[in-house]
Amino acid sequence: MGKLFIVSGPSGAGKSTLTRKAIDFFPDLRFSISYTTRPPRHGEKDGVDYRFVDEATFDRMVEADEFVEYATVHGRKYGTREKDLKELLSSGVDVLLDIDVQGAEKIAKRIKEAVYIFVLPPSIEVCRERLKRRGDISPEELERRVAVAIEEIKKIDNYDYVIINDDMEDAFERLKSVIIAERIKKDVLVEEVKKIFNLQEG
Ligand code: ADP
Ligand code: 5GP
């Protein structure tokens, strides 16, 4: 069974940038592809960044209880399909999930053994700047997202690790450290050690 890493935090914190870097860096770490009703951004591919579906399809999946969690984020629906996630984890690979703060809260009620990583901007001013730079939102929407970010940051107690994303390379080093440290925990390696040293039970 693979380990599940949940990268979460306010919009504009740098989750998807960090997630992409981690997926490129660790060959045995897979990205869990979410379903969304939002249209693709420039350069995004269906089945790679997201599975882009229409409202009716998403609602049908909700009805059929296919999502381990789903949430409406800034007016669009996003969800993690339970079957996709289970298949990935049971194939033995570690999985990285990039989800919003509400989604992380919901999944925490069902999956205790996941690693919860909170990504934060270094300040509200920087958060605003990054959202603005990414484009495609009006000034009103920008301020609304900043207000939501402040509320979300209060959820810090739901997380195991915090990455304040000041400098990207630095923040990525910290994310790598979390992944590596979690992979060398005693509980992860105990069976392998028993095999290596031919230890008997008892
Ligand atoms: P999220 O997925 O959390 O909404 P993104 O990864 O899309 O955030 O990042 C938001 C914007 O901020 C993007 O334009 C990204 O390139 C930029 N960004 C992210 N992290 C940093 C950083 N450490 N320094 C400068 N710009 C960053
Ligand atoms: P974006 O539209 O910028 O790619 O993502 C918007 C927000 O939706 C981000 O905070 C991202 O983490 C979140 N998100 C992406 N996939 C999921 C998902 O499957 N479930 C939940 N709850 N949030 C998601």
Could you please describe the fold and organization of this structure?
The protein has 202 residues and is of the alpha/beta class. The chain has a single domain, classed as Rossmann fold, CATH 3.40.50.300. The protein has helices at residues 15-25, 55-63, 82-90, 101-110, 124-134, 139-153, 168-183, 186-196, and strands at 4-8, 29-31, 34-36, 50-52, 67-73, 76-81, 94-99, 115-120, 161-164. The strands form two sheets. The protein has a five-stranded parallel β-sheet, sandwiched between helices. Strands 4-3-6-5 form a four-stranded mixed β-sheet. The chain is globular, with a radius of gyration of 18 Å. The mean pLDDT is 95.
Rounded to the nearest angstrom, the radius of gyration is: 18 Å
Amount of helix: 40-55%
Total number of domains: 1
Strand order of the largest sheet: 2-7-1-8-9
Structural class: alpha/beta
